[in-house]
Amino acid sequence: MNKDTRQALALILAFWMPLAPCAQLHAASYVDPANEFAICTNPAWQAYPAIHGSVVMWMDGRNGRSDIYGKDLSTNQEFPICVYLSSKYWPRMYGKIVVWGDWRNGNSDIYGKDLSTGREFPICISPGHQIDQVIYDDIVVWQDGRNGNLVPHNI
Fold first, then answer.
1. What phi, psi does 6 have (nearest 5°)?
2. Which residues contact residue 20 at a Cβ distance below 8 angstroms, ignoring those fewer than 6 apart?
3. How far apart are CA 88 and CA 108, in angstroms?
4. Which of 48, 56, 76, 87 fits a 20 to 30 Å CA distance from 100?
5. Nearest CA-CA partner of 3 in 129, 90, 147
């Protein structure tokens, strides 16, 4: 592991580890906050939830690493989004497309998945680290370690 990879991993763990003791995700409507309900009750940690429409997604530690799981609140169905052997982080969603950071290539890259087809696809696999991904419509933007700039990408 080179120096840049170690520094990026240390940065991710610095933000991630304080949340590791969190054992459950809960939600409530802002209209009726007394009607709280559990999103995920798996005894492993869950962190960094995001929501779009009726789908909630989060980082999940049930497999001994950070994977991405989701739950459709309209059907109460929980499902894996990405459980590849590397660590994944900070999922974001727009429509049926989920994007996340992924360490499967030895550095932080950006991947996506179309939940309507189940197709997973790379968005940016490049030297350096690509982080802080966000999505709106068919555009994904992230901070790119090759030159420190924000990079838009159509999907």
1. -60, -40
2. 45, 47, 61
3. 9
4. 76
5. 129
Q: What gap in Å lies between CA 47 and CA 54, rounded to an integer?
A: 18
Q: How many domains does the chain have?
A: 1
For each of the chain's 155 residues, which pLDDT tens digit applies? 455 544 444 444 444 444 444 556 666 666 677 778 888 889 999 989 999 999 999 999 999 999 999 999 999 999 999 998 888 999 999 999 999 999 999 889 999 999 999 999 999 988 888 888 999 999 999 888 777 665 666 66
The domain in which residue 74 lies consists of 3-154
Helix (H) or strand (E) holding 130: strand 130-136
Q: Report the alpha-carbon distance of residue 100 to residue 66 in Å, rounded.
A: 11
